[in-house]
Amino acid sequence: MDSISDEVVHDFQGFFKAYKDGRMERYPSPANVSAGLDSKTGVQTKDILLSPETGVKARTFVPKFNTPHRKLPLLVHYHGGGFSIGSPFIASWTNFLTCMAYEANVIAISIDYRLAPEHLLPIAYNDSLAALQWIAKHSKGSGPEPLLNNHVDFQRVFLAGDSGRATIANYVAIQAEVNALPGVNIVGLLMVHPYFGDPQEENIIYKIMSPESLGSDKDPQLNPAVDPNLSKMWCKKVLVCVAENDGVQKDHLNVVGKSYYEKVKKSEWKGSVELVENENEGHCFHLSNPMHDMSLG
């Protein structure tokens, strides 16, 4: 390979490198962990294929049932990773969602949307909305996955996203109003350390992943705070979680999260929004410490 091909134009540390010849090289991701029974919590994980056409998969997290036919709320989760790394199958998200399913006594399903830069945006958004539509097929008990048919209370569905993928959760909450989902009631939206990017630096990486985008300061998908349809979110409650020391500049993303909270609060949306701040914590600290504030010992 010649020197021109080896020349790196952009190096997005932790995500991917862009070479002068057009190649993209993703940084190594943590190894996947197998699905199965968690002996400490009794939570059972299972991997399912949502779409043979796109290859989109998901991992489900099911707490131990004390009553065999009981139905539980459903948490639909979109993992972080800058649209270009991560999956529900690595240890950090598996451990966190295992704890979430156990502590909150919910069934969780985390969507493995296709990643950029191989799959340019808005593919991740399209996959995520399609996944919710696939889930909705089970609301009448006749979908392809028995677990969802038999054990999910579709009147209590919640959407959640970490970091930048909080934008996906917000997008899906808005699109759910437009794309009718019979039998599904989205109760709440959980925005965990929302990251809408830096309009000066992050537009470079977003332009690579989404060439048609206007940039993170103007694109409603990348920045829900500028979405004119924000008031159309199809849910009753929004919980915004921020960390005191979140961001390269110590608290940049803390400010972003609080600004989003204020934007929702002042919009014409009819639901209730709440802000929770964790002091002395950084971005997505819960992934390295999923037992934080939990009573698992």
Automatic annotation (TrEMBL):
Protein known as: Alpha/beta hydrolase fold-3 domain-containing protein
InterPro entries found in the cross-reference section: AB_hydrolase_3, AB_hydrolase_fold, Carboxylest/Gibb_receptor
Entry's family note: Belongs to the 'GDXG' lipolytic enzyme family.
Highest taxon in the source lineage: Eukaryota
Residues of the Alpha/beta hydrolase fold-3 domain: 75-286
GO molecular function list: hydrolase activity
